[in-house]
């Protein structure tokens, strides 16, 4: 009888282990299926996004954009040029007075230019004038 009881316990333990493994395998398949569905949705959204970008690009005419900018009195500068100016201004004002020794006269001239250059640049948004206190226009 003892042998039969041991055999039954071993068979029940093996059955439970097998069911546990089947359950884990099923969960793995479900997760894999969910990942595949999410990936397919992402691909569909990317396709839609590229289609919309192409449609927007086909409808945008540089001449129209220049006309809109002129009507709104915006100063359009190429992004690369604006980035280079910002980088130049930040490197010129990066080191404080006295850092790494005294400044040379040429260094003092560039520091003076760096402090006056950002103020001298024309902002893309018009500042409200004294005559039009109530109305401000924001470019979006």
Structure commentary:
This protein has a domain of 71 residues. The radius of gyration is 34 Å and the shape is elongated. With 140 residues, it is an all-alpha fold. Helix content is 70%, strand content 0%. The C terminus is likely disordered.
| Helix-strand sequence | HHHH
Write down the Rg: 34 Å
- How many DSSP-defined strands? 0
Please summarize the sheet with the most strands: none
Number of helices: 4
Specify the overall morphology: elongated
Uncertain ranges? 101-140
- Report mean pLDDT, rounded to a whole number: 75
**Helix-strand category:** mainly alpha
Strand content: under 5%
Write the layout of secondary structure elements.
Blueprint: H1 2-59, H2 62-71, H3 79-92, H4 105-120
Short description:
The protein has helices at 2-59, 62-71, 79-92, 105-120. It is mainly alpha-helical and 140 residues long. The protein has a domain at 1-71.
